[in-house]
Amino acid sequence: MGAMPPERRINLSVLKRQGSGSSVKSNRGCDKVQSHVEKIPSKQYVATEFSTNQISEDTAQQVTVERSNCSKSDVTKERASGDASQAMKCLEDDSYDVPCEQLAKSLLGKILVRRLDSGHVLKGRIVETECYLGEYDKASHSFKGRMTERNAPMFMKPGTAYVYLTYGMYHCFNISSRGPGAAVLIRALEPVEGMDLMADLRARGVKKKKPASGEGEEGGSRKAKSKNFKPHELCSGPAKLCIAMAIDKDSCNKKDLTTWPGLSVVHAEGAGEGEPPPPVVVTKRVGIESAGREWADKPLRFYLLGNASVSKRDREKERDLMGRP
Q1: What is the assigned CATH class of domain 93-205+227-276?
Q2: Sequence-ordered alpha helix ranges (H) in the chain
């Protein structure tokens, strides 16, 4: 996760292991998504980037995390997958309330589902995860038990979304687990549904970084750029998947994945029945050299062997796993 700038400290007892950080005023999102939705202009799908604002005194004093009005009794345990003929079971509290490494491994092969306000559904199979163990992990944002407004979701109940901004422009998506300040970073997805929209969002993300002179946001080059993405490239990295899945701090941070219909993890029922699961490669994390060699080399990253969407392969570990020289 890398080093963090100094931030205002907040009272641990205020936020520790509470629920979602936002109330849902409508139960519209709790209903099953219809299989047919009217196409609306693509300009509504822009993956907006948000900057981290200074924490005010009022925020520091009044940060209380409210449970979503959309309670578990309102959210069906069998949520729609976007296809009215099929439903997949969401992970519940006990699935997340496990040690960080166990959660990181168990999430592999599960489906991350993003439901947009437009009614569109994006889905991707989790193929790469990375765990951050909390207060004693030098690479974690919560090292030494430090809680700030930024990393507060890491101290909330297991199954809370932690979305943060890095390099001032990219988002990363994590899920809290058991243990103070422990969370799993979702590093890569294999796209399952909504790939055209994912490509459109990715193209817009590229264009925001490198605007083409003389072309508006709805210019023809945007569509051409969308076609350049191969399916396995759409979500092959922490920032890429956030852009492709429209996951950002403003809309998804502090959400309870067991109750909020906008973002959830579901079992991939019916997929690959009768087939053994792919072997899991266990290797070191990516980009945390500043934490020191001891923590940089710890085997806390997990990915499915042979999956093209993995962000970074460890070929030596793969050979060892396959028993090849």
Answers
A1: alpha beta
A2: 12-15, 57-62, 93-96, 100-106, 195-209, 220-227, 238-244, 249-252, 293-296, 315-322
The pair of structure tokens assigned to 92 is 């519940």
**pLDDT at residue 272 in the model:** 54
pLDDT tens for 232-286 read 999 999 999 999 999 999 999 999 999 999 999 999 866 555 577 899 999 999 9
Question: What tokens appear for 108 in the block?
Answer: 């592999």
Comparing C-alpha atoms, which of 147, 134, 131, 172 is closest to residue 13? Answer: 147
CA 22 to chain centre: 17
Location of structure tokens 């980037």:
49
Would you kindly state where each structural domain of the chain is located, as residue ranges?
Answer: 93-205+227-276
As a 3-state breakdown, the chain gives helix, strand, coil percent values, each rounded to 5, of 25, 20, 55
* Region 185-212 average pLDDT: 85
Q: Which residue has the higher pLDDT, 120 or 50?
A: 120
Question: Helix (H, G, I), strand (E, B), or coil: what is residue 85?
Answer: coil
Q: How far apart are the first and last CA of the chain?
A: 33
Report residue 182 as tokens.
């422990």
Gap between the Cα atoms of 206 and 204, Å rounded? 5
Give the other-Cβ count within 10 Å of 127's Cβ: 28
Q: Which residues pair with 233 in a beta bridge?
A: none
CA distances from 67 to 62, 108, 114, 177, 183 (A): 15, 28, 20, 18, 20
Percent with pLDDT over 70 in the chain = 65
Which residue type does 23 have? S
Name the DSSP letter for residue 148.
B
Query: Which distant-in-sequence residues (6+ apart) come within 8 Å of 31 by Cβ?
Result: none
What percent of the chain clears pLDDT 90, i.e. is strictly above it? 60
Q: What is the pLDDT of residue 205?
A: 81
* Per-residue pLDDT, 85: 28
DSSP classification of residue 158: T
Q: Tell me, what's the pLDDT at 155? A: 97
Please give the structure tokens belonging to residue 191.
């796209």
